[in-house]
Amino acid sequence: MIDATVDLVIFDCDGVLVDTETIGPAVVAALAGEVGWPLTPDVVRARFLGRPEAYLYEQIRAHATVPVGPEWLRTYRDRVSEAFAAAPHTMPGVTGLLDALDARGLPYCVGSSGSHARIRHSLTHAGLWPRLAGRVFSADDVAHGKPAPDLFLHAARTLGAEPARCLVIEDSPAGVDAALAAGMPVIGYTGGPTEPAALAHASHGVIAALPELATPDGDAPPCDAGCPPRPTESEHRMRDLVRRLTDPGSFTELAVERRAQPPDGPIGWPGYDATRTRAATRTGEDESVLAGTATLGGVPVVLLSFVFGYLGGSLGERTGDRIEAAYAAALDRRLPLVSLIATGGSRMQEGMRALSQLQRVARRAAALRDAGLAQLAVLQDPTTGGGWAVLGGAADIALALPGAQVGFAGSRVRPPGADPAAYTAESHLATGQIDAVVPPDALRATLTRYVTALARPYPGTPPPPGPLTRAPLPDTGWAAIRAARAAGRPRADAYLAAYFTDLLPLGGDRAGGLDPGLRCGIGLRDGRAIAYVAQCGTANTPAGFRTASRVIRLAGRLGLPVLTLIDTPGAAGDAAAERAGAGPAIADTFLALATAPVPVTSLVIGEGGSGGAMALAAAGNTWATPDSYFSVIAPELAAAILKKPAADIPHLADALRLRPQDLAALGVAGIVSPPPRPERQPPDAAPPAAPGNR
């Protein structure tokens, strides 16, 4: 019944793999009675089978006649654990079924409503934990458990399988509903207490015995005992992303000498060799990362691609060898490094020898940075632990897939009550830790745009953009202020769109901050790359200045000239900005610009408010549009300091000499002028000839 259309089998745990469904309901019934809600095990099974613990707890609290707090849930877990320890064993046929799936090289995992601790407890006492460790997915991992599809979709996404090519084995109506909502085929299993009628809506029928799943038609085995695994299909699944992102036939794997290790690895972890053998059988790979060279849009790159199906994409000594080889190849050939990351972090079976790989990677990353070579990362689900820190977090450009789990703390090691939304790609984008979230169908084009841009820096100094209005130079200082503050004046987005043909965002300060009043990125002009930092007319925050510094320094390392667009009434001066380090952040932007090893062009397009504007002004190459001003202080603030009445503000604007023509006279900035108007033709003049017809 499991045919070639299936790439991943997802098992429920209790009642499918482990015979516990008679135990849990009895414990719940007893505990519910203790708080005044009389239930029988059958009623518990009907109401809660397949539901997450959070739902059970909410219902107990709602129906109890005495106050119920978190201690009830702890008591429930303790009693269930005690009962499971005394009784659990595998459901009939489980071991043979899993052996058959291993022989076919077909991956499988657990998707259960139980907590990670409870699932591990059950599988350990049933003797199944060693073969399922690293492939267990719990309702703890998602915002909504069964019957929502989140858990099954998370499992499929993590293991690189399309939902339609997953097969779910469930014994609860809620689990069947979840699978159907996820768009996955589902088989109902009635080998436990669940009645067949309750699972009649399962898309692929109902079975009473697990061995029925081991054969395509329920009778003849798919192959004899010597049937080889399916490395070609597994290899296809794990390398599919590489094939989809790179130019056809361009990926060539690097030759890396295989490190000799003692039995069961550097610290002798019991069963480690057998675990690696099973991982290789499942994935068709012999380590958790691929390293090679390829081209994206014709641009040569070095590519690292993690294989999460191999021990959770974890980093061990041999992983470190391959990563180090990739960095060395990028340095020797002066190529950008692109990392496709999906990892749970360092490999515990290799102990501190695994953790030390982070130092190796960091040294290589620093060498690449010093050599002026770009590092790009694509964060898949999940990207956690040290792999996120030294490969993703240290990348010059970090992109992520939608919904990817990203964070230093993986789902099983977070503090109790941690907000799961904080560990998502979208949260990291909102807090300035990554540059963009890119849908899978746009990933190849987006990556290609970035690497192509980085390979073609703009030669020389960028010309200043021309003004987007035909505003005349202002007669007075106050007229200049009013023109710069006009609501309809063109802002940064309009100037960037007019100046560049493509914009590639670089967002955030990499320290938890994002300023929505700043646009940063890489733009293409005449097919060549220029880094840009553009103020949007607001008071910029310390995060904004830190972002500007980051982009300017990145441009300097990668040899990209810089364009800055100045438009701010001044840096944010509120208490929050002060606590966030406004002074040091602004100072660092001054230093970044002053030491930039690449040409920088600056254009004042609106308000040039004091130090917050001057921090982005290139010394000796700053320009101003006719509808802008640049001032040491706003005239209103000058009046407040001098204790002048409001009527004197326009006169102070004149005294400050802040008009574009004043700036030119002072040698502070040049003036950009609009292009000349086209000559008007007489009404009876013939239309101009089209190009090529003269």
Automatic annotation (TrEMBL):
Matching Pfam families: ACCA, Carboxyl_trans, Hydrolase
Keyword vocabulary terms for this entry: ATP-binding, Cytoplasm, Fatty acid biosynthesis, Fatty acid metabolism, Hydrolase, Lipid biosynthesis, Lipid metabolism, Metal-binding, Nucleotide-binding, Transferase, Zinc, Zinc-finger
Gene Ontology molecular function, alphabetical: hydrolase activity
Domain CoA carboxyltransferase C-terminal: 465-694
CoA carboxyltransferase N-terminal domain segment(s): 196-474
InterPro entries: AcCoA_carboxyl_beta, Acetyl_CoA_COase_a_su, Acetyl_CoA_COase_Trfase_b_su, ClpP/crotonase-like_dom_sf, COA_CT_C, COA_CT_N, HAD-like_sf, HAD-SF_hydro_IA
Compartments it resides in: Cytoplasm
SUPFAM superfamilies registered for this protein in UniProt: ClpP/crotonase, HAD-like
Pathway(s) the chain acts in: Lipid metabolism; malonyl-CoA biosynthesis; malonyl-CoA from acetyl-CoA: step 1/1
Function summary: Component of the acetyl coenzyme A carboxylase (ACC) complex. Biotin carboxylase (BC) catalyzes the carboxylation of biotin on its carrier protein (BCCP) and then the CO(2) group is transferred by the transcarboxylase to acetyl-CoA to form malonyl-CoA.
Name the record gives this protein: Acetyl-coenzyme A carboxylase carboxyl transferase subunits beta/alpha
